[in-house]
């Protein structure tokens, strides 16, 4: 079973005060996926809310997880869930905000650096490897001299909010595609489209 089971981690901070922040775009994408799977998130012993579902009848099993810890402690819950479900790092997908790519852009990769992202850094440490998949949802660079930490802990601008629902749907499409079609095919689809 684990070969066809995927752990999809939506990175973010817990609580309503953070829910609209750029830093929480990964959790917003998981809300879209959860709605597609027709399920509800429930609490788990791993300090995360979790939803299990399948991509189509008899399709791959998805474990959607939103850690209830702060971003810099993301690794513990994700590592615990990976162990519990017997999921190897190559079947773990982190969905996260990325300031190094423009808003409304989606990029995918496996492994590599964390680019100063504390959630990814903690995941790499807890999983013991950087070789897990990343769905990078572009939030753009902070304007002027604004600190990156302040920028990602702010809500999307009113202009961005108009395009945000489409971006979240496309990021959810990217998660489904990487599970069903693999990384290379999904990269070609999303990178060539400028998304």
TrEMBL record:
EC number: 3.1.1.29
GO molecular function: peptidyl-tRNA hydrolase activity
Gene3D superfamilies: Peptidyl-tRNA hydrolase
PANTHER family, per the entry: PEPTIDYL-TRNA HYDROLASE
Protein name: Peptidyl-tRNA hydrolase
Site (Discriminates between blocked and unblocked aminoacyl-tRNA): 13
Alphabetical keyword list: Cytoplasm, Hydrolase, RNA-binding, tRNA-binding
InterPro entries to which the protein is assigned, alphabetical: Pept_tRNA_hydro, Pept_tRNA_hydro_CS, Pept_tRNA_hydro_sf
Catalytic activity, as annotated: an N-acyl-L-alpha-aminoacyl-tRNA + H2O = an N-acyl-L-amino acid + a tRNA + H(+)
Site features described as Stabilizes the basic form of H active site to accept a proton, chain residue numbers: 97
Organism name: Arthrobacter vasquezii
CDD domains registered for this protein in UniProt: PTH (cd00462)
The family this protein is said to belong to: Belongs to the PTH family.
Subcellular locations according to the entry: Cytoplasm
Biological function: Catalyzes the release of premature peptidyl moieties from peptidyl-tRNA molecules trapped in stalled 50S ribosomal subunits, and thus maintains levels of free tRNAs and 50S ribosomes.
Assembly and oligomerization: Monomer.
Active-site residues (renumbered): 23 (proton acceptor)
Matching Pfam families: Pept_tRNA_hydro
Transmembrane segments: none
Sequence positions that bind tRNA: 18, 70, 72, 118
């Amino acid at each position: 079973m684990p070969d066809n089971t995927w752990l999809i981690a939506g990175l973010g901070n817990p609580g309503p005060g953070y829910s609209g922040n750029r830093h929480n775009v990964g959790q917003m994408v998981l809300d879209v996926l959860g709605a597609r799977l027709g399920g509800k998130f429930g609490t788990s012993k791993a300090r995360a809310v979790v939803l299990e579902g399948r991509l189509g009848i008899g399709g791959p099993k998805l474990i959607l997880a939103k850690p209830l810890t702060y971003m810099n402690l993301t690794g513990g819950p994700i590592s615990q869930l990976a162990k519990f479900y017997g999921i190897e790092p190559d079947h773990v997908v982190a969905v996260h905000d990325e300031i190094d790519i423009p808003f409304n852009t989606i990029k995918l990769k496996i492994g590599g650096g964390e680019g100063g992202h504390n959630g990814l850094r903690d995941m790499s440490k807890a999983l013991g490897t950087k070789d897990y998949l990343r769905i990078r949802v572009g939030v753009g660079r902070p304007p002027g001299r604004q600190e990156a930490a302040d920028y990602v802990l702010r809500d999307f601008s009113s202009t961005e909010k108009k395009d945000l629902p489409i971006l979240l749907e496309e990021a959810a499409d990217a998660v489904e595609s990487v599970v069903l079609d693999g990384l290379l095919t999904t990269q070609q689809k999303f990178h060539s489209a400028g998304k």
